[in-house]
């Protein structure tokens, strides 16, 4: 077994690595660190994502630099802001015992003046996105003359993202004697060309398989309306009782939200994103590795480190902003020669992007029909039956009870017995899926506009004119926070300290969750269903609160039996007992306002005057 301490790193660096809990170098680290420590050759390292490339270049880089002077000697180019921050933070950890080490990360989307003053304070290593670095070069705040090492991290992604010219420009301006180290998961022609132009006789290292859009991945997609996505996700998961997968979401917030909602509904899921502490992340990852977690909801960046075999499905809750990420996402499944399925759930507006992605990845995407409630029930039923077949009987443990069990069940025929056993679990799904709507988007059907239908839920939101809002700005704020269509928002009435926003009933729950995650001017926003019944467009009151039309999101959970449970714990899938009460209900009742909605309503009214609720 190779240890970090035997690779030739300075003791203070080896110590820092040890403190990180890295017990032994990964294969790419083991093979590249000794070469890079010689500091004499250009270098090209190819290894799959998540194999530890950051330390493979970061440790030798720190080992080489002179931290007793402030001159910038190392430059690392990364494709995205997140990666810049991550690489900087990783290298700061590696250099935690290295005196005088300063790093700065520069990337777009953040104030340039702050970055300039950081650079002026002096940093031996700059981690940069190519675009922002070019900006800084143009402003002459960055001096590349003394750079000794240039690292191109995730080179394939940088080139995919169109940074080729920028990279060439930057490299041609690092005029001193330098080494270029290139790290990549794949080796497309463009990477090869950069290597040929800017590297001299590089040492080439390939570890394991390169990332490819694997042939054994099946790519499927489902089309559903934007407001049905979450239900479609659940449907798809329920149709795969043995799923062990990763759900990709766009942002940290979305990741957290999806995970929380899944957990609330009894799924065995958890979130992985950059706002979690390293300790929290490790905990989640360990559970996932050990299969005690079935569904991991992750951002692209957080998922980079994941190298878990046997992942059956990757689910794209939305199309990645950077289409190239799709390959990285889908590559989490079908590892080590296994088969895997990559699912993308799109709304009608995303179909164009899906086609682009299809062209880019050269993969064939097959459209599939979102399973119906009946399909899911059938699938689950046979899963139960299959489990009965497979279950190993612990004879000695069950023996003492067999007599009593027989006695209790003796009046049942074999057929009755079978039916009853199967129904223990099956009933939950039957209950849950009775009246389940068709979630497939049908373009030929004229879209049912919720605005016209008047099926809105009125939501109390704790911002108002006092916060500087008028109708227009609140409308835009709400749209920004939610990604809904304009037609999903009905009337808005503003009060001094709060407002009422009508939201398409099927979206109300999601809307409230979303709003509660927002801050406005440092204040957390409160949102909840207003006690008032929603009004229909034509002025009448057609619907009961949370009327029954909105399918899953609105109707079923709003109305109906409040404690319809989604217990899924029964057959070894979930580690959570499944009595997740209808979340909408219980949340409302526990709200900060206390009391029933009626009380809450009159309380507001009393506080704020009597004309509050006229439209
Ligand atoms: P890559 O750049 O190859 O995609 P990273 O450098 O981001 O991979 O590393 C992926 C994950 O593996 C990170 O969470 C990192 O902390 C962890 N890691 C890296 N090297 C080791 C090691 N030697 N032992 C344990 N974990 C490691
Ligand atoms: Mg990396």
CATH C-level of the largest domain = Alpha Beta
How many domains in all? 4
Q: State mean pLDDT (0 to 100 scale).
A: 80
What strand line-up does the widest sheet have? 3-4-2-5-6-1-7
DSSP helical segment count: 24
CATH topology of the largest domain: Rossmann fold
Largest sheet: 7 strands, parallel
Do you know the CATH architecture of the largest domain?
3-Layer(aba) Sandwich
Can you tell me the overall shape? globular
Structural class from helices and strands? alpha/beta
Terminal Cα separation, in Å? 74 Å
- Count of distinct strands: 20
CATH superfamily of the largest domain: P-loop containing nucleotide triphosphate hydrolases
Using only C-alpha atoms, the radius of gyration works out to 28 Å
Describe this structure in words.
This protein is of the alpha/beta class and about 625 residues long. The chain folds into four domains: about 5-205, P-loop containing nucleotide triphosphate hydrolases (Rossmann fold); about 215-370, 3-Layer(aba) Sandwich (Rossmann fold), CATH 3.40.50; about 375-430, no CATH class; about 455-560, Alpha-Beta Plaits (2-Layer Sandwich). The chain is about 40% helix and about 15% strand. The protein is built from 24 helices and 20 strands. The strands form four sheets. The chain has a seven-stranded parallel sheet, with helices on both faces. It has a seven-stranded parallel sheet with strand order 10-11-9-12-13-8-14, sandwiched between helices. Helix 2 runs parallel beside helix 3 and helix 6 (about 130-140) crosses helix 8. Residues about 445-455 and about 530-615 have low confidence and may be disordered. The site of adenosine-5'-diphosphate has 14 residues, from helix 3.
């Amino acid at each position: 077994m190779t240890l970090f301490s035997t690779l030739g790193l300075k003791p203070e660096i080896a110590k820092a690595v040890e403190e990180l809990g890295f017990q032994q170098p990964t294969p790419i680290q083991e093979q590249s660190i000794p070469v890079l420590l010689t500091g004499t050759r250009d270098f090209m390292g190819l290894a799959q994502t998540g194999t530890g490339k950051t330390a493979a270049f970061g440790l030798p880089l720190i080992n080489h630099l002179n931290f007793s002077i402030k001159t910038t000697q190392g430059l690392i180019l990364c494709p995205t802001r997140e990666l810049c921050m991550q690489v900087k933070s990783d290298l700061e950890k590696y250099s935690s015992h290295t005196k005088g080490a300063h790093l700065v990360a520069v990337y777009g989307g953040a104030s340039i003046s702050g970055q300039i003053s950081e650079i002026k304070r002096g940093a031996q290593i700059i981690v940069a996105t190519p675009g922002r670095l070019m900006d800084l070069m143009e402003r002459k705040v960055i001096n590349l003359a003394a750079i000794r090492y240039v690292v191109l991290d995730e080179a394939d992604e940088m080139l995919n993202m169109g940074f080729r010219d920028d990279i060439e420009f930057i490299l041609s301006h690092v005029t001193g004697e330098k080494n270029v180290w290139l790290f990549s998961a794949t080796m497309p022609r463009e990477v090869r060309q950069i290597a040929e132009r800017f590297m001299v006789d590089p040492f080439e290292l390939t570890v394991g398989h390169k990332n490819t859009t694997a042939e054994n991945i099946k790519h499927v997609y489902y089309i559903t309306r934007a407001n049905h996505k979450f239900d479609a996700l659940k449907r798809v998961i329920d149709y795969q009782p043995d799923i062990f997968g990763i759900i990709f979401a766009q942002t940290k917030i979305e990741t957290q939200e999806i995970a929380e909602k899944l957990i609330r509904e009894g799924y065995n899921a958890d979130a992985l994103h950059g706002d979690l502490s390293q300790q929290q992340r490790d905990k989640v990852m360990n559970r996932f590795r050990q299969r005690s977690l079935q569904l991991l909801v992750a951002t692209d960046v957080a998922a980079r480190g994941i190298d878990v075999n046997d992942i059956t499905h990757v689910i794209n809750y939305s199309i990645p902003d950077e289409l190239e990420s799709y390959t990285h996402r889908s590559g989490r499944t079908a590892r080590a020669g296994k088969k895997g399925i990559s699912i993308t759930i799109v709304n009608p507006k995303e179909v164009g992007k899906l086609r682009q992605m299809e062209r880019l990845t050269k993969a064939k995407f097959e459209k599939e029909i979102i399973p119906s409630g009946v399909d899911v029930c059938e699938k689950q039923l046979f899963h139960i039956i299959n489990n009965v077949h497979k279950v190993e009987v612990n004879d000695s443990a069950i023996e003492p009870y067999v007599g009593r069990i027989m006695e209790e069940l003796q009046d049942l025929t074999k057929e009755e017995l079978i039916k009853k056993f199967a129904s223990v679990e099956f009933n939950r799904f039957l209950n849950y899926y009775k009246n389940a709507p068709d979630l497939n988007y049908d373009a030929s059907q004229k879209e049912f506009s919720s605005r016209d239908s008047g099926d809105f839920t009125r939501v109390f939101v704790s911002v108002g004119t006092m916060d500087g809002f008028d109708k227009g700005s609140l409308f835009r704020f709400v749209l920004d926070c939610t990604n809904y269509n304009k037609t999903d928002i009905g009337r808005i009435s503003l009060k001094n300290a709060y407002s009422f926003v009508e939201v398409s009933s099927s979206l109300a729950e999601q809307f409230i969750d979303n709003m509660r995650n927002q801050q406005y001017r440092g204040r957390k926003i409160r949102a909840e269903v207003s006690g008032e019944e929603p009004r229909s467009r034509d002025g009448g009151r057609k619907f009961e609160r949370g009327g029954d039309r909105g399918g899953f999101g609105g109707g079923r959970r709003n109305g109906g039996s409040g404690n319809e449970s989604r217990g899924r714990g029964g057959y070894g899938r979930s580690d959570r007992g499944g009595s997740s009460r209808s979340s909408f209900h219980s949340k409302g009742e526990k709200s900060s306002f206390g009391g029933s909605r009626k009380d809450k309503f009159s309380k507001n009214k009393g506080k704020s005057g009597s004309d509050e609720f006229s439209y």
